Amino acid sequence: MVRLIAFLIVVGLLVAGAVWMAENPGAVTVHWLGWRIDTSVPMILLALAVLVVVFWFIRGIVATLLGLPGAFGRRRREKRRRKGLAALADGFAAIIAEDSYGARKKAAEAQDALSDDTSAATLLLARAALLGDNPKTARDLNTKLLARRETEIAGLRGLMDEALSEGRTDEAIDYAARAFERNPRAAWAGRALFEAQVKRRQWEPALVTLEAARKSGVYTAAEANRRKATILVARCDEAITGGQTYEATRLAKKAVDADPDLLPARIRLARSHAAEGNASKAAGVVEDAWRRAPNPELAEVYRGLWGDEDALKRVSRAEHLAETNPEHLESRLLVAAAALDAELWGQARSRLKAPVDAGVRDPRLARLMARLEEGEHNNLGDALRWLRQAVEVIGHEPEAWRCTACGTRAAKWDASCQACGTFASVTWGGGRALVTLPPEGVPSPVDRPEAAVAAAGTR
Ligand SMILES: [Zn+2]
User: To bridge 187 with a disulfide, which of 37, 71, 124, 218 should be the other Cys (CB 3.0-4.6 Å)?
Assistant: First the structure.
């Protein structure tokens, strides 16, 4: 709208000017080199306007002619740049394909085409050298990358990988620490540094790294909580070994707060309360943990709390704990063991029947069945068969401490897996089908213990 009004004003002024010029033509006479020109003022103005237009036109042509070599050079440079970028993309694709030769070839092409900035080509060459098992070249190239702030982290990564491949662990960790300090979002550096610190049981520095890594998003909240609680449990174990009972309780409490689902934390908290003589607190922790996940180590702590009570009283204690998770195998084993101590044969048998019928293979179940057969009916033959089964199925318990990374069974919980070294990977759980249901029509192992022994032997 504003433009339209401005346009109308300009047109109006021009028309008014033209009309005024037509009404007042005036007269101009020019004498020049023996010539005499008689004309009007409007004609002089028109001639001037034509001269200006012709001048601009000629100037444009001259500028285009002068600029041609520059434009040609620009096009050539642009073509080279595109070729260089394509070589870089192909080179990094070769790295992903683990083709060291192809990557080196493309890096050379990129270096040639992008001669004014070769840092990306250097990065490519460094990765190719690592891939091609050429550590000396890789080290030189990665060291070169440290010079620029933009490529420094990549250089440190290359140097760390190279140091690790040569077995220089300390040096590798220094590179990871430097990279993580420069950029806390460098996930590889945060993880490498943390893993190295926990492997060396440097718990305090590991907690500092973990907090920084959580803040920068290297670890999710759940991952960070599990790792923090695992460190606290490891420190708690060290405090127990050192006889620091109060410190052990404090650390176990902190571990439960950090990750309420970490079973070893609850087991240690229960043990610590028991060691301090606080049976009711210990029982509370065990009952809470039992509701989440029953476990033989929890059962052991619980039994320890009431060891001096009479056998019948201990059965009711076991029943009380089992109530929180009545169908679980651990609950059945706990009550059955207490019932056998009290010679309550019927109660023991009723608790053991379901897992025996389901074909559960557990040495503790088999030992309890042997005690039952011997105690109730003095049936030494059946008792012996159950004991044989107990030996056969050792190591085949439905649930055990197991590494979630490599699947290896562990006799006890540890902060790191003894087999593969992964931190915070040992959990309580099943590594395979928990029960073997007998095929229909086939008598269960409770009727034919020798069948169970044979079946266990084939595993
Ligand atoms: Zn493992």
Answer: 218
Give a yes or no: residue 347 inside a domain.
Answer: yes
CATH value at residue 153: 1.25.40.10
Beta strands in 9-79 (DSSP E): 28-32, 35-39
For residue 415, the CA-to-ligand 1 centroid distance in Å is 11
**pLDDT tens digits, one per residue of 400-457:** 899 999 999 999 999 999 999 999 999 998 644 333 333 343 344 444 444 333 333 3
Q: Domain boundary residue among 316, 339, 354? A: 354
Q: How far apart are CA 115 and CA 103, in angstroms?
A: 18
**Could you tell me the distance, in angstroms and rounded to a whole number, from the CA of residue 402 to the centre of ligand 1?**
8
Ramachandran quadrant class, 426 (left: phi over 0; alpha: psi -120 to 50; beta: rest): beta
Taking only the tens place, the pLDDT of each residue in 23-58 is 877 787 878 788 888 888 878 888 888 999 999 999
**Centre of ligand 1 from the C-alpha of residue 226, in Å:** 16
Global pTM reads 0.71
Distance 172 CA to ligand 1 centre (A): 22
What is the CA(431)–ligand 1 centre distance, in A? 12
| 99 occurs within a structural domain | yes
User: Which long-range contacts does 335-343 make (Cβ < 8 Å, 24+ apart)?
Assistant: 336/368, 336/372, 337/368, 338/311, 338/314, 339/315, 340/368, 340/371, 340/372, 340/375, 341/311, 341/314, 341/315, 342/311, 342/312, 342/314, 342/315, 343/311, 343/375
Q: How far is the CA of 263 from the centre of ligand 1 (A)?
A: 18
Closest CA to 143 of 109, 180, 171: 171
Domain with 117, as residue range(s), is: 88-191
Identify whether the C-beta of residue 386 lies closer than 8 Å to the C-beta of residue 449. Answer: yes
- 75-99 tens-digit pLDDT: 888 898 899 899 989 999 999 999 9
Q: How far is the CA of 419 from the centre of ligand 1 (A)?
A: 5
Ligand 1 centroid to 122 CA: how many Å?
37
pLDDT at 430: 65
Residue 160 lies in a domain: yes
CA of 398 to the centre of ligand 1 (A): 18
CA of 75 to the centre of ligand 1 (A): 58
Residue 172's nearest CA partner among 184, 187, 188, 161 is 161
What letter does residue 426 receive in the DSSP assignment?
A: E
260 CA distance to ligand 1 middle (Å) = 23
User: What's the gap in Å between 34 CA and the centre of ligand 1?
Assistant: 111
| Residues contacting 458, CB < 8 A, separation 6+ | none
- Separation of 405 CA from ligand 1 center, angstroms? 5
Structure tokens at 251: 């650390």
- What Rg do the C-alpha atoms of the chain give, in angstroms? 43
